[in-house]
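Two quick folds needed for the group meeting slides. Do the first one here.
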Amino acid sequence: MPKRMDEGLGGAMNIASSTLDSLGEVQQANVELTMNARRELHLYSPDLEPHLYDYPPFLSALRALAVSGGRARVHILVRDSTPAVSRGHRLIELARQLTSFIEIRRLAEDTRERLDAFLVVDRRAVVHRLYWMSYQGMASPDDPVLARALVKEFEALWETASSDPELRRLHL
């Protein structure tokens, strides 16, 4: 269970910002925030980390968002999708099935030095890890300042990103 940042302050239920230290904590935060998404989700993961994003509860929450009412949008940026494609990552398959709602792009070559990873929901809720190969980070269902800053960075990267040829389905 993530450690709540408000522990020791009376544990008010409306404040659920958490520090994250383990795979299970990051998985739980991703699932909970995605389950509460209504309009949009921005995800940056260098290689679609299968232990986080090829995780059935996360995929179920993402599918539910995508089919929730026609307006939801999921934008995903990756540095390299080759390992995910070769492993048969289920998030890629979901994106192929729901092309009107989920789009994955590859970062431009000159923007691939990012070390962090993040998920932002509805420009308000955030899971952010400063170093993508670590599970240490933070999660908050209500941090619009950080969420908007990350989305602004994401959108700038999105504009220079391209469709990933690795993600095209081959029909033989």
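Then this one, please, same format:
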Amino acid sequence: MWKDLRNERKHSDYLSEQLLTQAKKALQDQLQAADAKVAHLTKQLRDMRGSAYKDF
């Protein structure tokens, strides 16, 4: 009986670690996408400011 409970616990721990790893990877991917978007928007804003400055 105790052996079965230990095996269940190990399996549960393994699944928890697996889910945690997947969630961490998904968050890292989202963060990288957000960083790229911020960099792109920052460049666009700088370009717009530069062209607005030249227009005056």
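Slide caption for protein two: Helices lie at 2-55.
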